[in-house]
Q: What sequence folds into this?
């Protein structure tokens, strides 16, 4: 049962992307799914059903926060680029780790990259992230509050 659900999900994803629902294509999808799962060792995690509704609520809030940050950063970058003085102060900023799980850290790094004007560069051994920003002052000012909110949501989702 541990591997059947991921196989089914991968096969349905393969069929949806290929738009070919013939039996031969279904068999190819099953072979690909088994091959992918044999390369990836998925750790067994017990589902804590009592905290699942809270995790889904935190996920919805996380996506809302992400959307707000992307729109706000996009507007700021548009104003920054259209300004005739071009007040760009680019540089690298270190943001401390906010989540214990590797998956939470990876998702946090990708959400930072989604915001216009910021790009995830590297993560150190402690989980601190180095971010390239076009407006270092704004990133340093907003990073702590934003990371605190996203960190609490990611902990509710993954920990």
A:
């Amino acid at each position: 049962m541990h591997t059947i659900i991921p196989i089914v999900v991968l096969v349905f994803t393969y069929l949806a992307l290929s738009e070919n629902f013939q039996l031969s294509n279904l068999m190819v999808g099953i072979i690909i799914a088994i091959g992918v799962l044999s390369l990836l060792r998925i750790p067994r995690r017990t589902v804590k059903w009592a905290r699942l509704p809270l995790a889904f609520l935190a996920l919805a809030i996380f996506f809302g926060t992400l959307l707000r940050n992307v729109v706000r950063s996009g507007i700021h970058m548009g104003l920054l680029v259209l300004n005739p003085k071009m007040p760009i102060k680019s540089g690298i900023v270190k943001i401390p780790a906010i989540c214990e799980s590797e998956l939470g850290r990876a998702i946090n790094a990708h959400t930072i990259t989604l915001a216009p004007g910021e790009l995830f560069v590297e993560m150190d051994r402690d989980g601190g992230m180095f971010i390239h920003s076009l407006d270092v002052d704004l990133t340093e000012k907003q990073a702590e509050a934003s990371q605190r909110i996203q960190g609490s949501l990611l902990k509710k989702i993954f920990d």
